[in-house]
Description:
Distance between the termini of chain B: 75 Å
Mean pLDDT of chain A: 88
Strand content of chain B: under 5%
Distance between the termini of chain A: 38 Å
Radius of gyration of chain A: 17 Å
Oligomer: heterodimer
Largest sheet of chain B: none
Low-confidence stretches of chain B: none
Shape of chain A: globular
Amino acid sequence: MDWMMVLKAFILGGIICIIGQILIDKTKLTPARILVTYVTIGAILGGLGWYKYLINWGGCGATVPLTGFGNTLSKGAIEELKNTGLIGAFTGGIKAASGGIAAAIFFRIYRFFGVETKN
Amino acid sequence: MKQINSKEEYQQYVDQKTPNSPILKNCFNSFWVGGLICAIGQIIFEICKTRGIDETLSYTIVSIILIFISAFLTALNLFNKIGKFAGAGSLIPITGFANSIVSPAMEYKSEGYVMGVGAKMFTVAGPVLVYGISSSIIVGIIYLIFNTQSITLI
């Protein structure tokens, strides 16, 4: 077990969350807008090929925040584009992120049994 | 008491009276909760690595396990407490995306399983998916334009 990487993931993930917290406290952005901003920024950084430097340094500290989700989408689109041509831009992104999306929907299944959650 | 005449004065008065949100404390809490979630992810990733699972698949496994944990905590009504305490610390990681799929409590009673549970799941997650997927397609098309020679068209 590489504990140094765990520490780096802790620091990088924490910093990314602090930026989000400052956005919540200092601007009037709603959480939904912040999430959308994060995904879009991640997709752009992934497309430019810069996000992989963050992943190389901080591992899951970069992939677990939603910017990592955006990065997975655009990285998948580009890789599929290289393999199958133009159609890959449409299939690649969701294919790469499908595990997370499907899991998020599937684990909500207890809602169908009427389990209440309070917000 | 001072007379309030204009809108600006009223705004000043409100700013004076409302307590400052303790931004330093919020940032500290979101730092260590967000960091902790990422560190747990990294530990799962390291375990996957020692078992010889390749990198891309490991990151997917990490997301799925974290989403499962957050779904579990949401079902126990614990996630909202963590969210109130940590703010962005639990919102920004993938756990917040998973939690956002839970919509306000009453909907399936009033609107049923299709339009209630099925549609309301995506009130927050929908925009994230829409903008994430759209920008990934745009990124792909831009990449295609600038690197045409490296790609076989269709």
